[in-house]
């Protein structure tokens, strides 16, 4: 929502996917084996789609851990369909709570669980205006103060650079 992308046909999504693809390939080449996420509507789903594409070329695995059962039930239908396709192709799928939505603690605990189970994260965020990602970023920065937790950013400037590069090359197709 913070990107003001209202539907799955928005042409800006391809630039987000290119940014994730580039960062993920570099991480895979450095030894990344697993990516875990909740599969949240929007950026996480697009990243998951990129990972699924990369599975054809690289030995990368995808784990989807939504905070509760029927996580996607209130999303627009197109996102529900995307989520179901992603979990079908994921290497592992398990809701963290084996129940439907109960309270905000499920989202909060999901963030802490993902941080605990990972060595780092790849975030698309504008640190000046982080929006809802700011809640996760605050938790991650606290973990980073205690350990060697890695944060890799994709910034609005990174996205702008990809757009400029593609325009200069007259290449608006996804790499």
From TrEMBL:
Superkingdom of the organism of origin: Bacteria
Q: Which Pfam families does the record match to this protein? A: YpsA
Q: Which InterPro entries match?
A: YspA
The cross-references to PANTHER family, in alphabetical order and at most eight, read: UPF0398 PROTEIN SPR0331, UPF0398 PROTEIN YPSA
Report what the protein is called. Uncharacterized protein
């Amino acid at each position: 929502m913070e990107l003001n992308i209202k539907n799955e046909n928005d042409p800006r999504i391809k630039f987000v996917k290119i940014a994730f693809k580039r960062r993920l390939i570099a991480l895979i080449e450095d030894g990344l084996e697993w990516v875990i996420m909740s599969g949240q509507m929007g950026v996480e789903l697009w990243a998951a789609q990129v990972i699924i594409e990369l599975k054809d070329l690289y030995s990368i695995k995808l784990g989807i851990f939504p905070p509760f059962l029927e996580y996607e039930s209130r999303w627009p239908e197109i996102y529900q369909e995307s989520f179901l396709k992603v979990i079908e192709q994921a290497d592992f799928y398990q809701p963290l709570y084996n129940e439907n939505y109960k309270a905000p603690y499920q989202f909060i605990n999901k963030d802490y669980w993902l941080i605990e189970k990972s060595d780092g994260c790849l975030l698309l965020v504008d640190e000046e205006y982080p929006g809802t990602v700011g809640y996760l970023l605050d938790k991650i920065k606290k973990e980073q103060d205690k350990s060697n937790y890695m944060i890799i950013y994709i910034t609005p400037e990174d996205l702008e650079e990809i757009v400029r590069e593609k325009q200069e090359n007259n290449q608006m197709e996804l790499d």
